Structures are given as C-alpha cells and as structure tokens.
Fold these 2 entries.
Entry 1:
Amino acid sequence: MKKTVTANISGIVFHIDEDAYEKLNNYLGNVRSHFSDDESGNEILSDIESRIAEMLQDKISSSKQVVTIQDIDVIISQLGQPGQMKDEDPDPGTGQQKESPKTEKTSKRLYRDPDNQMLSGVCGGIGAYFNVDPTWIRIAFILLTLLYSSGIIAYIILWIVVPKARTTAEKLEMRGEKVNISNIEKSFKEEMEGVKTNIDNLSKEAGEKFKKKRNDEEASNTLANILGALLKAIGIILGIALVMAGLFMMVTIIISFIAPGVEPFSYFLRVPYLLQDIIQPGWLSAIAFTGLLLTIVIPVIGLIYLGAKLIFDINSKSGSLPIILVLLWVLGIIVFVLAVIKSVVLI
Amino acid sequence: MNLENTKAQMRKGVLELCILSLLAGKEAYASEIIEKLKARKLLVVEGTIYPLLTRLKNDGLLSYRWEESTGGPPRKYYKITPLGETVLSELKKSWSNLVESVNKLTENNKN
C-alpha cells in the first residue's frame, strides 16, 4: 500500500504516488530555476507542464489510475534534464560574458548554519566560513568560556548579530561556493535526500498530531476556550515578569563581577568581593571566578529562557538548550569548587 | 572528444529550420512537432523544443492560438508568420549551400 497525493498539472487532476510527486516536483523546480533568468521562463515551464500532463494521461487508464515513480522516470528521461534543454544563446560571445561576472562574485559570508546546529548554528557557520570542523569551534568556545565567560558573551553576540542562512543561495555563499544553477541544484538535491529520510518520521508525527488535534477539538467547548485564553494571558504576563527579572539580575551580576566595589550593586551581591579575600589573585582566582559566574548566571539565563517560552510558545520544542545549560551549570560548580579547594591547599 | 555532444550540437543548429519547415503551410501543436522530429531522429530530449518554440515566437517567426482538447490540457497551435516564411526560405538556401559545401569537402578528403 502506498500513499498518494492529488496534483493539478496544467488544469488536469492526477493521483500521484507520494515518492513520484516528490520527484516530479523536484524536477520541475530544477527546470524552473534553470529558466529563471529567462524572461519567458514561465511560459516555457507551463508548456513543459502541459506536455507532462499529456504524457501522464497516456500512462493512466481505468485499470491503472495512479501515476508511479516509474512513469515519472520515463517522462523525465524523455524530456531531458534542464541542462540539456537550454536553447542556444543567439550570440555565444554574450553568453560567456554573462557567466563570468557571476563566477567572480563568489565571496564567503558569515551565516549561522541551520543544517549544522547544536544551539543556534553559530559554530557551524564559523566552521563553514573557515572550512573547519564545527566541533573544533565549539571546543574553542567552551575553552574561551573558562576565561571570564568571554566565550559565552562572544557566542551570544554572534547569535544576535550573524544572520541565519535561510535560502539555498545563502547556504552556498556561507560555504563560499558559487551561486549558480548547478550548485543550487546540487545542494537542493542533497537537501531533498535528507528530507526523504525524514519524511517517514514526519508523516508519522503529523498523523499523531492530527489525531490529537481531533480529540482536542471534540473535547473543546466555549468555556474551555475562554479558560485557555485566560491561562495564556496569565502565562504571557508571568513570562514578561520572568524575563524582566532575569535581565535585571543579569545586569546586576555582571556589574558586580566586573566592578565588585561599585555601589549600589555590591549590596545585591557581595560574593565576588568576598571571593577576592579568600583566593589570591592569579590564574586560580580567574578560574574560580569564571566557575562562580557560570554557577550564578546560568539559572538566570534559564529564568529568561523560561519567561521567553511562556511569552512566545509554550508548546514549542526546547531543543538542546536546557541540557546544555544544565551541563554548563554543573561544569561551573565543579570548576569553582576545585579551584577553591586547590587555592586553599596552596595557602 | 565527446561524440554525442557534437552530434547534439549539429542537430540543435538545424532544429529551427526543421520546425519552420514543419509549420510551413500547416499549423501544429508542440506534441505533434515533437512526434515528427522524433520519428526522424532529430530530437533526443523533448525539453529542447520548448525554449526554442518560445524564442521563435518571441522573435515573431511563429504565432500561436489556444485550442481546447478533449480531456487533455488546452493546446497551443503554432503557425508560421510571413516573417517566418522569409526566414525559412533564407535558412533553406543556406542549408542547401551548407550541405553542398560539406559534402564536397568530405568527398574530396576521401580521395
């Protein structure tokens, strides 16, 4: 048994196997991007589509009502790949001139890589920019964090400042590859492959969600709706309060750490000030300092994160952020305790 | 050397002449043109024809009208224009010159 989709091709309705549809859609996408710089590209595409509709009509009958992937393969081999289709340039000279500035324009840009992300894709993007395995970049950031948390601060700044690579062209730019049709085609194909492997999980998930939604709908009534809206409003207000409190605490902590003696912030947090008395200045105190900062700052980040979640979308997936926060927190405690013990022993 | 590529280039060059000749005196839609070209092994992949037809139409050598078909999508019937006729006769002339010259050259080299 196979799932089919219906598709409107040139005004005719076809039942197509899902995999066949995927393939045809991919093919038409390639043809479209191939003719995208041609002003009559749309016309050519619709001519080709109507030819496909014609050929598909020949392939189906009352005993075979569904278009299969074999049909699509035959049609594609009959029509040819987009690269074979291009009408010759009226003047070959101009054609080459058109190509060259495009290839020269190749420049790398720093993006966040959504295909290679643990948290936000900052490290993936930097890795792509310098052509290094992102894991090394991640290790570098963690090591930098041991130096007065500069890693975390740099990371957050990059997260805010560096844009995410959304389109295929941007992803190519990120890797420093030429933005031309064959490359876009290539990376599109790679993406499609990834999509295919995920499609089973996805459809399963969608099915479950749909079922759940239906149950929800059956159970819902106006009272529940009102109650839900009220709860949501309370959640948002609570979220805003959490975020604001978290941000205030953050500022206080940072200032008390940078300048431990400054009034009035030192009233809020005397710990770093006291720490200076216990531990002799030097590399150990720097490490203890960082450990302590992590231990205190991370719960605050968690608070802001929780608040943000309450404001925007409670049901969204958390990803790996909470786990990373907890790990960093534990790391901070261990580093702090070890550094303090070590310095006491040294004294 | 890529033999298939050279052959394809040769065919591509004369495709315009072939399409104009096919449409001279008789209108046809894309699939009919494709069938005829394929029967004579002048066309390998069908996709080539669409950009070509569109360009000939944009250059004013062809015109077209829509016609409903039974069951299938509406068809574009192409027709040659007076300008197309002039271009066709020019192309025919240069084609026969070309064939003659090429034949002479290849024959001479044989001997």
Entry 2:
Amino acid sequence: MRFVDEFRSGDVARQIAERIAGLVEPGRHYKVMEVCGGHTHAIYKHGVEDLLPPEIELVHGPGCPVCVIPMGRQDDAIAIAERPEVIFTTFGDMVRVPASHGSLLDAKARGADVRMVYSPLDALKIARENPDRQVVFFAIGFETTTPSTALTLLRARAEGIRNFSLFANHVTIIPAIRAILDSPDLRLDGFIGPGHVSTVIGLRPYRFIARDYDKPVAVSGFEPLDVLQGVYMVMRQLASGRNEVENQYTRVVREEGNPRALRAIAETMELRTSFEWRGLGFISQSALKLRDEFADWDAEVRYELPGVRVADPKACQCGEVLKGVIKPWECKVFGTACTPDRPIGTCMVSSEGACAAYYNYGRFARRRGREAEIAGLEPVVREPASA
Amino acid sequence: MCLGIPGQVVEFVDPEHHIAKADVSGVRRNVNVGLLSEGSEAVDVGDWVLIHVGFAMSKIDEQEATATRQFLETLGEPYEEELAELKGSQIE
C-alpha cells in the first residue's frame, strides 16, 4: 500500500470532511467512540470535532492507561514506595495521580525514594546499581506497553537480578470495550480502534465487535487526518450496512500484530480473574499478573499490600468520562476545583485523559473558527486504506 | 504515555540483549529491539522504528517517520516531555 503525500493536508481534510458529511443519514445521530487516549488528545488538540457534521459525536473511550488505574491500586503503589528498603520506579505520568493520602510525589516529599524512569529497562539498571536496595517498577499500560515489561522481566531473570520486582497493573483493551458495549448507559454506532495497541494485538481481537455487536471498527493512526479517515471508514460501513474491522493504519499495524510481543506477554503473564477499572468497576479477565514462576519478581507476592478498594472522590466523575457517558465539561468540578495543576481525578492528570486534553486544548479550539482549524492541520497525508 | 516516537537505528550495541542505539530527533540513546527480531520485522542499521518506553515496537518507512515526527512536534509539550525523558534514559 503506497501513500499519497502530495496533497496539502487542509484540502484533504476538507475533502474527507465533505465525504463524511455526504454519508450522514438525515435525522440520524451518530456516536463513534475513539477508544484510545492518544486519539482523544489529537482530536482536541487539532479540533477534529469541528470538521465533523453536527450529527456525528465522538465519544471518548477508556484507553488512557493512567486514567483507568483505580485509587486502591495507587494506594498500594504508595504503600510499596514508602517501605524504607524500596526504590520505587515509575513512569512520570503516575507520580501526580491523587491517591487516598496524596500522590507518589507527596510520598516522595515525605521521604520515599520515588524515581521517574523512561523505560522499565532504566528501572532494571537502577536495580543493578543498587544491590542492597529493592527496586520496584510500577508497571502500567495497555498492550502497547506490556511487552516492554515482559522483556524486562525476562532480562531480570536471565541476569539473576533478584532485587527487582514489578507491581503489575497491565490492562487489556478488549474486555473494556466489551464492558462498554454491554453497558446500558451508552449506545454507540462504531469504534475508532487504537493504533499502537493494535501493533501488538493485530486486528483479530476486534472482530467480535463486528460479529457479535454489529458495529464497525476502523483501527486508526494518531494524526488528525488518520482520525478523520477512521471516522470516514466507520461512516462508509454504516452507510452500506457493513460491520467489519478495517485498518486505516496499515503503515504501522499488521493484521497479525506482533507475534514476538504476544509471546513475551504469554510467557511471563496470565489473566487475572478480575480487575477493577476506574469508572468501569470490576471486569473479569481484563488485566494481567505475573505467572507463578516469576513470583520472585512479583511485588504483589513480595510485599503485603493494603489491597483495599477505595471509592473515587465524590465530586469526581472521571469514571463517567471514561465510559463516555458524560463529556469532561459536564463534570461539576471540571476547570474549577479540578485542573491539571490540582487534579482530583486521573482524567485530569494524564495528557491522554479526556479532561486534561479538553482543558488544555478543546475549550480554546471551540472558540476558533472552523476554517482556522482546517488550515491548522499540518501533517502529511495518505489515502485511506482498507484492510 | 502511549506515544510511539520515531527513531533510526544507528548501530547495534549489545546484540545478545537486543540493544541498539537509535537516533531520535538528534538524541542518541540505547533502545531494545527485541520485539523486532524475527522475519520481515527484524531490524537492521538504518531502519526507522517507532519507540515506546525504550522498546522499538514497529518498523516504519522513512516517510512515515518524518510525518510522525512532524505531527508529534505539533503536540508540543507531550513530545518535548517524551524527548526529555528519553534523554534521561540509560538503557544497557
């Protein structure tokens, strides 16, 4: 599949927008969920919604790994971090997430040794260099990130690094999509599937959405034009009564995903019976834990954790935002008591959270004119491609 | 967090552990290429890859790498933060 790069993207955006508008059935309202937080960010940043006809509503999904970790797990993380022998390593995104008694940054201010790392392999290096300390890595993320944790764990075992362990919170996207499809709160017409998750899992796992729920899926890239093309592919399917899994992001996503990555996950981890998601509650078989043979590297085995389920702060409606039931600005504390500087919920912490994305960009994008938004689209363009 | 940032593989540093040096917008750091070690996905020096938390996750062509980098630059702060974190990385 070759791409067409010659067009000015603004023109192409207009063309796609016109083709999308041409597919709208008069009087019908369409709800299309973009599953991935990266999409949500791009949509608000580039005002993609302004290019769509008013009949099409983009609903933001649960694909923000920082957002979906429930408060109780964050409390557990802090409990580990506060042990004197522990160096607690984490991606920067997690340190500001509020828990019952402050965030990891607050724990650090109280004396906990919390260190931000770019990669789990950086955490492993810290373990190598500090043999007299216990180094714990806060492993979070969807299938995009899980293989990195898996390979790091295999490396730790191969090198016999025993002062390293993982606090595993890896979640899987498919059960969350199924939970949303089964939820009575929301009627969706189709899905923009996540791009980078799909580089790992491929297209097959989404087929149940088309087969069992009669809804179209277009796995899409992250540039505004990718998202627009994804919407176009979903609308084209709806207009012709098809329900399929299409791949807009063929330049990165292979149909079969990444078999090496899937093997690394399967070798090191297995499904938990159930896992709590912020907003979505307990979802069966929706997260991964380390296999028994890796118990020596499992922080949940090594340390006694509070393991208490903690309700979200009452004022915070992050859960409703994650389910796509309300928009960020419909939350009572949005932009007043809850801002990126003083977040109450996770959706305001992560740049991929719908609340932060809307706070940072959406409310300004809304003020700008439609034409300005079209002109503001910069990236290189390709023709949409079917799987 | 889920950003995949484009980089070019410039040399293999530790083939046994699948560690290669990648150039990301002029920043050269070690990354793990173990997820791209089989068949047509196997990486070589000169290849462009999308990098996520220190791991090359998929091979892309140069045109895609350029387009992705241009897009990420329009995001501003999230990409700058990602680059700053990559700069601090010391994968071995």
